[in-house]
Amino acid sequence: MTSPKNSTVTSNNLEENEPLKIILAEDDQDDQELFMEALNATEVPSEVITVENGEELLNTLKDPAEPNPDIVFIDINMPVKGGKEALAEIKSDEELKEIPAVMLSTSNHPQDIEETFNKGANLYVQKPSSFTGFILILKKVFVLHWTKALMNPVKNIFFVSEKNISHKD
Length: 169
Known about the structure:
33% of the residues lie in helices and 18% in strands. It has 169 residues and is α/β, with parallel strands linked by helices. It has a seven-stranded mixed β-sheet, sandwiched between helices. Helix 1 (29-42) crosses helix 5 (131-144) and helix 2 runs parallel beside helix 3 (83-91). It is globular and about 35 Å long.
């Protein structure tokens, strides 16, 4: 299931005028809606395609009619093909491996964080418990981490949660 969404608001913090092309792989409809609403609140110009599992994500990424996204957000726990498995396939594919991948999970278990880092994820975001927290995390991902973490993952800033971000960011 795909649902393109376009936000035409510009942000002074982004250098490009083109909207970011984002794929969100998330099986929970409520989490999809929360992500979209929080993304709109960040005022980051974007176009989002949603898929409901890792297999749909890989099919979308390999579809020659679809341009590669600027970033993918991947829920860890999904049916059909989970996020970790999809991440491993993306990072082992010569044509897809450079796409920044942000893992999404309610878990902050060190094993999940370590495993996704080792499989090539660019960032690991613990799903926040509040709408405001989701907005702050997405702002941090796009404004603060975009050039630092997403292009060259660094272990000490790999894990982002509502608890380790500042409301001043």
